[in-house]
């Protein structure tokens, strides 16, 4: 369906005029290329979603519409527990990441201090280190340095995973917030101080409101990163705690079932909603926020 | 511009303590221990003694590990190259798209990127497996042709699309393509459009402009796109694990088995840190290229 | 000077989405002209230039170069070259490589390329700068590189997009005269886009004034100034006192416009305007005379007594050395701009702030505008 809608939409932009030399989007080879890439990126996801409604266990031929796999997935206790764990972890690690990340960004933006370059570089390392290495680090850390007790009450029983997730999320938040701080007019803060605000009050009254959109965007980024993570969780988690990706992983290893399709579809919908939320709060810059970090 | 930390000591110390503590205690300490382990030896079932030995690194040179490193690098390089070839025209089209179409196209590129990696990989399994959609379509086409040709094609044999190296590369391209498109787009977007127009105005065609002006100027951005794609591809675990066959193991899978199955932590730690070193070398290389680039522009 | 038509815009319209940037413009430019497209920002002048260069495609109409329709010809195959507003000098190439780039694209051999590029650099007084990188040049020098790069291809037409806007005031004056002498030297048709009327008047042999996508007037600089065809042109080029009125008398050899602020304005020529309709009389400040206040108003020698004269008070004055600008308030509160040259060293002391004066102008001075 992408194939048919895309070119039609593009034609509407300017009906008759031939394309200008740099209007690459209006040249058919590129349009065709875009459509093919679009199909490549979307066909697997869309078929997965469609077939979660297919009334057939093994057969991939369409047998009729059903919601029974959603029903099944929603009554699968271990899946529900895993989903709940994932949400709890994502929520907690997001809150901590936003606070710590914002603090790091403000410190880097605001102060001159010995070791600033080192601190800045240190914050970038969690972003670039391969996931598997970080996962291994967490495995060793929670095995040898800080063995996590099994019998803690909720949500502390998920504490080790939350800690691991914060470690890779908060540098991303710091980058997003730091970018936003770049557009802050320092005279506003000076004006607040001139009018009698203390250092702390000026920060809370002027700086924090300015960076609010980036806090939300950074938070959404941290939330998605946490929900998305499999490798680090897989290494950090003990045998008793199962998150959604870890659960899906074990189900997938076993076989492809419509139940997994249904659960995946739910998560895709959640992601899409989150993306649109991020867009609403920070415009299209939110889209590239995570990537901007990698770019540095 | 910036304030010396001494001017607001208490606020500075409060603000830096939490991130610094977290970074040191929950990131550098774990990695540091792994690093120490890479110079250690197994003693008994659970104890590891730090002996300062290079044996683990030496062990990484034994068969089959160099081959696995080589293969991982090769797969990551191929993935990066394919992403570049597929992604560059897309980035170009997005850059010069009208404002409205631009944000929709960016969204279209980003949406899969924000979707859970495991789900995307799983979706590929459903497409590629023997009873998957590709083979189903192929089977149907095969049967139709066979009917027309009166059965001269013989029996249908499904394409082996899953559990092999092809599947791994296909999956890695599928997963990493947005990583490549975004930095390419952001470099191209920053480029002064009149430079391209000047080149066209002076008689260069589109291809000439691409190689004479766009590529030299976007060099740093292309490099960072390559790096951003290559590093995660090199360390990927999930894709080769789920899509690969028995001979598609990459470094990350070996590391995982050393830690979770073979229980040889020191060796796993050494392998992990070889991966980290490779990453840093890549970043350093890119930094050098970028500095050279900046020196030219400044 | 100007020869055969070289460029023709035929009913060119360009729309971007819902906005019309260029609206049904027809215009012919002749060989050897230094032609200027003049107008406020957003008037469509740059779009017109970019359509000529091939960067934008006209929505409607045709563009002819040497009689050939080039409307859909890509920019790299058009015999025109452009000097960009930002100069667009390739930062990764040396000055010489920049200048030789166009020749390389045309398949000119290396030796000839080098020779011609060095010649072009000499033409713009940058001989010996070939090995430098653009970042080692000043803004003015970079512009010369852009000029040399375009001229070396010997285009039929050279396009200049706001060539002086990025230079500082002193360099701008110098480049003005250099560009005109360069144009005379190479004999190539120049088309320059600018929003600066001084620039256009000083450099161009002919100007087209545009406003909101429409072509307002095409004329020589002096005709634009002395014979504007609309209130927009009169106001945009230089400064002007505009009086709205009705055309009361429109005879063969004279006309009278009844204005509210200046009373009846006498003209020494017929107008052929709409009888009793609304027209505007535009008088340039330097064409208004100041007189000491006497009991009888001064008589203008080419108009009957009592016409083209008003009593006023000096409200503001700005001494500018060569001349003094006055603002005279007349009955009804209207401020009239008057520019008076300081012909002697004591001239500026003739009038004082608050002084009662007469103002007058000749019957041949007002330009009559119908729109």
TrEMBL record, chain A:
Q: What Gene3D superfamilies does the annotation carry?
A: MetI-like
* Gene Ontology terms: biological process: transmembrane transport
Cross-referenced InterPro entries: Bact_Polyamine_Transport, MetI-like, MetI-like_sf
Top-level taxon of origin: Bacteria
The answer to whether keyword Transport applies is: yes
Q: What is this protein called?
A: Spermidine/putrescine transport system permease protein
Entry-linked Pfam families: BPD_transp_1 (PF00528)
Transmembrane stretches in the record are: 32-53, 87-109, 121-142, 162-181, 260-279
Please tell me the species this chain comes from.
Answer: Asticcacaulis taihuensis
Location of the protein in the cell: Cell membrane
Membrane topology recorded in Swiss-Prot or TrEMBL: Multi-pass membrane protein
PROSITE patterns tied to this protein: ABC_TM1
Keywords attached to this Swiss-Prot or TrEMBL record, sorted alphabetically, are: Cell membrane, Membrane, Transmembrane, Transmembrane helix, Transport
Q: For this UniProt entry, which residues form the secretion signal?
A: none
What protein family is recorded? Belongs to the binding-protein-dependent transport system permease family. CysTW subfamily.
Transmembrane in keyword set = yes
What Gene Ontology cellular component terms go with this record? plasma membrane
Q: Where is the ABC transmembrane type-1 domain?
A: 83-278
From TrEMBL, chain B:
Q: Which terms in the GO cellular component ontology are assigned?
A: plasma membrane
Tell me which domain of life the UniProt entry assigns to the organism this sequence originates from. Answer: Bacteria
Q: Transmembrane ranges? A: 12-37, 73-97, 104-128, 166-188, 209-234, 267-289
ABC transmembrane type-1 domain span: 69-286
- Which Pfam families does this entry report, sorted A to Z? BPD_transp_1 (PF00528)
Q: How does it sit in the membrane?
A: Multi-pass membrane protein
- InterPro entries from the UniProt entry: MetI-like, MetI-like_sf
Q: Which PROSITE patterns match?
A: ABC_TM1
CDD domains this protein is in? TM_PBP2
Q: Where is the protein localized?
A: Cell membrane
Keywords associated with the record: Cell membrane, Membrane, Transmembrane, Transmembrane helix, Transport
Q: What is any one GO biological process for this UniProt entry?
A: transmembrane transport
Recorded family membership:
Belongs to the binding-protein-dependent transport system permease family. CysTW subfamily.
Provide the protein name: Spermidine/putrescine transport system permease protein
* Organism placement in taxonomy: Bacteria, Pseudomonadati, Pseudomonadota, Alphaproteobacteria, Caulobacterales
TrEMBL record, chain C:
> What does the record give as the function of this protein?
Part of the ABC transporter complex PotABCD involved in spermidine/putrescine import. Responsible for energy coupling to the transport system.
Q: Which GO terms describe its biological process?
A: putrescine transport
* Species: Asticcacaulis taihuensis
Q: Which GO terms describe its molecular function?
A: ABC-type polyamine transporter activity; ATP binding; ATP hydrolysis activity
Q: Where is the ABC transporter domain?
A: 7-237
InterPro entries documented for this protein = AAA+_ATPase, ABC_SmlMolc_Importer, ABC_transporter-like_ATP-bd, ABC_transporter-like_CS, Mo/tungstate-bd_C_term_dom, P-loop_NTPase, PotA-like, Transp-assoc_OB_typ2
Gene Ontology CC entries for this record: ATP-binding cassette (ABC) transporter complex
Query: Any idea what this protein is called?
Result: Spermidine/putrescine import ATP-binding protein PotA
Pfam families of this UniProt entry? ABC_tran (PF00005), TOBE_2 (PF08402)
Q: Which UniProt keywords apply?
A: ATP-binding, Cell inner membrane, Cell membrane, Membrane, Nucleotide-binding, Translocase, Transport
Q: Which family does it belong to?
A: Belongs to the ABC transporter superfamily. Spermidine/putrescine importer (TC 3.A.1.11.1) family.
Where on the tree of life does the source sit, at the highest rank? Bacteria
Cite the record's note on assembly.
The complex is composed of two ATP-binding proteins (PotA), two transmembrane proteins (PotB and PotC) and a solute-binding protein (PotD).
Q: Does the keyword Nucleotide-binding apply?
A: yes
UniProt xrefs under PROSITE patterns: ABC_TRANSPORTER_1 (PS00211), ABC_TRANSPORTER_2 (PS50893)
The reaction(s) annotated as catalysed by this protein in its Swiss-Prot or TrEMBL entry are: ATP + H2O + polyamine-[polyamine-binding protein]Side 1 = ADP + phosphate + polyamineSide 2 + [polyamine-binding protein]Side 1
The answer to whether keyword Isomerase applies is: no
Q: For this protein, what is the EC number?
A: 7.6.2.11
Q: Which SUPFAM superfamilies match?
A: MOP-like, P-loop containing nucleoside triphosphate hydrolases
């Amino acid at each position: 369906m992408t194939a048919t809608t895309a070119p039609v939409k593009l034609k509407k932009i300017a009906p008759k005029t031939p394309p200008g030399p740099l209007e690459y989007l209006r040249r058919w080879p590129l349009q065709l290329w875009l459509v093919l890439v679009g199909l490549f990126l979307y066909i697997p996801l869309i078929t997965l979603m469609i077939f979660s409604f297919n009334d057939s266990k093994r057969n991939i031929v369409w047998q009729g519409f059903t919601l029974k796999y959603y029903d099944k997935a929603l009554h699968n206790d271990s899946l529900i527990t895993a989903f709940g764990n994932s949400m709890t972890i994502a929520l907690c690690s997001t809150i901590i990441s936003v606070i710590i990340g914002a603090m790091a960004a403000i410190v880097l933006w605001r102060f001159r201090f010995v070791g600033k370059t080192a601190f800045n570089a240190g914050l970038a390392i969690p972003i670039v280190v391969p996931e598997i290495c970080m996962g291994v680090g967490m495995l060793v850390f929670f095995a040898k340095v800080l063995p996590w007790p099994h019998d803690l009450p909720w949500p502390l029983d998920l504490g080790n995973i939350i800690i691991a997730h914060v470690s890779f999320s908060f540098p991303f938040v710091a980058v997003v917030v730091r970018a936003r701080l770049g557009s802050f007019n320092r005279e506003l803060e000076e004006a607040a101080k001139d009018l009698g605000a203390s250092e702390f009050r000026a920060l809370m009254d002027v700086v924090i409101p300015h960076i609010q959109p980036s806090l939300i965007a950074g938070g959404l980024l941290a939330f998605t990163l946490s929900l998305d993570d499999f490798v680090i969780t897989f290494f950090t988690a003990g045998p008793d705690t199962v998150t959604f990706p870890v659960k899906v992983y074990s189900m997938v290893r076993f076989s492809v079932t419509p139940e997994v399709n249904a659960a995946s579809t739910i998560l895709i919908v959640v992601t899409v909603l989150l993306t649109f939320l991020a867009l609403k709060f920070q415009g299209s810059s939110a889209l590239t926020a995570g990537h901007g970090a990698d770019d540095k | 511009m910036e304030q010396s930390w001494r001017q607001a000591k208490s606020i500075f110390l409060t603000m830096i303590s939490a991130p610094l503590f977290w970074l040191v205690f929950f990131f550098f300490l774990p990695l540091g221990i792994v690093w120490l382990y890479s110079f250690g030896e197994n003693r008994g079932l659970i104890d590891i003694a730090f002996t300062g030995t290079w044996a683990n690194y030496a062990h990484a040179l034994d068969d089959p590990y160099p081959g696995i490193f080589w293969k991982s690098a090769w797969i990551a390089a191929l993935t990066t190259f394919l992403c570049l070839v597929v992604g560059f025209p897309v980035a170009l089209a997005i850059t010069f798209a009208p404002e409205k179409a631009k944000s929709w196209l960016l969204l279209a590129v980003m949406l899969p990127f924000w979707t859970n990696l495991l789900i995307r990989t799983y979706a590929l399994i459903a497409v590629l497996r023997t009873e998957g959609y590709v083979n189903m379509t192929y089977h149907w086409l095969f049967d139709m042709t066979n009917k027309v040709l009166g059965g001269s094609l013989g029996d249908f044999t499904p394409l082996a699309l899953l559990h092999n190296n092809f599947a791994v590369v296909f999956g890695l391209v599928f997963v990493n393509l947005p990583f490549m498109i975004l930095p390419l787009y952001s470099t191209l977007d920053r480029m002064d459009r009149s430079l391209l127009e000047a080149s066209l105005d002076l008689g260069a065609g589109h291809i000439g402009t691409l190689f004479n002006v766009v590529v030299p100027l976007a060099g740093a951005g292309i490099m960072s796109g390559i790096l951003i794609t290559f590093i995660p591809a090199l360390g990927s675990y999930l894709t080769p694990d789920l899509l690969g066959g028995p001979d598609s193991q990459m470094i990350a899978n070996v590391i995982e088995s050393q830690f979770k199955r073979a229980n040889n932590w020191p060796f796993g730690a050494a392998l992990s840190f070889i991966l980290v070193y490779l990453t840093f070398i890549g970043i350093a290389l890119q930094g050098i290229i970028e500095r050279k680039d900046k020196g030219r522009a400044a | 000077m100007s020869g055969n038509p070289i460029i023709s815009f035929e009913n060119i319209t360009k729309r971007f989405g819902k906005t019309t940037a260029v609206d049904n413009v027809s215009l012919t430019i002749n060989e050897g002209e230094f032609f200027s497209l003049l107008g406020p920002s957003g008037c469509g002048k740059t779009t017109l230039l970019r359509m000529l260069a091939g960067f934008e495609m006209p929505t409607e109409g045709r563009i002819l170069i040497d009689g050939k329709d080039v409307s859909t010809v890509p920019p790299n195959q058009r015999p025109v070259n452009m000097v960009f507003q930002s100069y667009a000098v390739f930062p990764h190439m040396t000055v010489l490589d920049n200048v030789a780039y166009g020749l390389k694209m045309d398949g000119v051999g290396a030796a000839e390329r080098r020779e011609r590029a060095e010649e072009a650099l000499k033409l713009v007084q940058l001989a010996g700068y070939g090995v430098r990188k653009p970042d080692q040049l000043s803004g003015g020098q970079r512009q010369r590189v852009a000029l040399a790069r375009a001229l070396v291809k010997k285009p039929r037409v050279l396009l200049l997009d706001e060539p002086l806007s990025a230079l500082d005031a002193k360099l701008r004056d110098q480049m003005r005269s250099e560009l005109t002498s360069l144009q005379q030297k190479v004999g190539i048709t120049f088309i320059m886009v600018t929003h600066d009327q001084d620039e256009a008047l000083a450099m161009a042999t002919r100007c087209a004034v545009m406003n909101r996508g429409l072509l307002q007037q095409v004329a020589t600089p002096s005709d634009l100034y002395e014979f504007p065809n609309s209130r927009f042109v009169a106001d945009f080029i230089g400064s002007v006192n505009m009086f709205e009125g009705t055309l009361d008398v429109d005879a063969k050899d004279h006309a009278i416009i009844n204005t509210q602020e200046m009373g009846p304005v006498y003209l020494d020529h017929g107008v052929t305007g709409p009888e009793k309709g609304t027209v505007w009389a535009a008088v340039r400040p330097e064409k208004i005379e100041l007189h000491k206040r006497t009991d009888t108003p001064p008589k203008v020698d080419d108009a009957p007594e009592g016409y083209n004269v008003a009593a006023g008070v000096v409200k503001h004055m700005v001494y500018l050395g060569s001349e003094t600008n006055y603002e005279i308030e007349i009955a009804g509160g209207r401020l009239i701009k008057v520019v008076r040259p300081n012909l002697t060293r004591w001239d500026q002391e003739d009038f004082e702030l608050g002084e009662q004066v007469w103002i007058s102008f000749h019957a041949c001075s007002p330009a009559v505008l119908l729109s």
